[in-house]
Amino acid sequence: MLPQEENEALFYQIALTMVPGIGAKTGRVLLEHFGSATEVFKTPLKQLKNVDGIGEVRAKGFKDEEIFKRAEKELAFVLKNNIKPLAINHDYPKRLANCSDAPLLMYYKGNADFEATKIVAIVGTRKNTDYGQKLCEDLIEGLQQMDNLLVISGLALGIDAIAHKKCVASGIPNIGVLGHGMDWIYPFTHKALARQMVDNGGILTEFPSGTLPDRSNFPMRNRIVAGMSDVVVVVESNIAGGALITAHMGAGYNREVVAFPGRVNDSRSAGCNELIRTNVAAMITKADDLIEMMNWSEKTKKKPVQKQLFINFTPDEQKIIDLLQSKDMVHADEFYHHTGLANSILAATLLQLEMQGLIKTLPGKYYRIN
């Protein structure tokens, strides 16, 4: 049974995430090819199987009645619990949308601004020390002065929970990204904390209801934490674990990565020390270090440039210059979103303008007119 007409688009968006063999990248190909999830499902089988990466076996999955039953059940759960769906092509966090493996659909409860100008991911070990707890709490206290700040973490035990609790106590919007469905909270002891976060931030997941917190889900969760942020902060971590996965994902997404150093013989600082040693992460010791590195200090801000550049730019260069002249500074992701240029063309054009001395690169992957 199909849903009412006004929920049809959401029904098919949910169904698209449930088709076997259709991941984020293939799903994007289909959405770009057909325009919407609704049109994907309404396309005849013989036409669908000819799309690159689909084939006959995957195409048949779009006609499986079991998919529709599961999607209908999830739609009812979403509507009943006032959950906001975030589809890749609608109401979606722009930073994450620029990541090629971003989930096609996420489920959200809360009131955060996904386009906050300063988004910080804070991650670390589940078995923190007192040293790690103090670093985390002091960091958040130091960031409290910043306007338009959003903190993201994974609502796990240890550093994640410390970050969320300190943000709640400090009135800082913060989002917990879950490794399971919205029908429960793991660990259960964080249920009250999650309710508080919904009032100022929220909880977010790509997993439908009924999904258990299986071990394999958490690396997937980590890519959302990294992809939504401007900078990933590793507070305290072993040499292997989720925090390091998040850090490397952040670096892969061209996010800034920073870490607090620790004693060389402390296993719970070994991961941070290794990130710093291998130049994956920059070292910070306090919030001011992060603020300076990200160019977030009010003292370092310049007034918007009003000068006119009387140069014959190419059309691609002109798009970049126009955006830079409208703002104080522009993040690399913002160029991609506003200009529509492919990543390779964008990178080459930015480099060319910088070599000509017309623009300047700032910390945190920001640019301004030189």
Structure description:
This protein is α/β, with parallel strands linked by helices and 370 residues long. The protein has three domains: 5-80, Orthogonal Bundle (DNA polymerase, domain 1); 109-293, Rossmann fold (3-Layer(aba) Sandwich); 302-369, Arc Repressor Mutant, subunit A. It is built from 17 helices and twelve strands. It has helices at residues 8-16, 24-34, 37-42, 45-48, 55-61, 65-80, 94-97, 130-143, 159-170, 191-199, 217-227, 242-252, 270-277, 287-293, 315-325, 332-339, 343-355, and strands at 84-87, 105-110, 118-123, 149-153, 174-177, 201-205, 231-234, 256-259, 282-283, 330-331, 359-362, 366-369. It has a nine-stranded mixed β-sheet, sandwiched between helices. Strands 10-12-11 form a three-stranded antiparallel β-sheet. The termini are far apart.
Keywords:
370 residues, alpha/beta, DNA polymerase, domain 1, Rossmann fold, 3 domains, nine-stranded mixed beta sheet, three-stranded antiparallel beta sheet, 12 strands, 44% helix, globular
CATH C-level category of the largest domain: Alpha Beta
What is the radius of gyration computed over CA atoms, rounded to a whole number of angstroms? 22 Å
**What is the beta-strand fraction?**
5-15%
Number of strands: 12
Q: In CATH terms, what is the architecture of the largest domain? A: 3-Layer(aba) Sandwich
Helix/sheet category: alpha/beta
User: What's the overall average pLDDT, rounded?
Assistant: 90
Question: Percent of residues in helical segments?
Answer: 40-55%
The CATH topology of the largest domain corresponds to Rossmann fold
Q: What does the largest sheet look like?
A: 9 strands, mixed
Structure annotation, total helices: 17
**Lateral arrangement of strands in the main beta sheet:** 1-2-6-5-4-3-7-8-9
Dominant shape:
globular
User: Which stretches are low in confidence, meaning pLDDT under 50 for 5 or more residues running?
Assistant: 299-308
Please give the domain count: 3
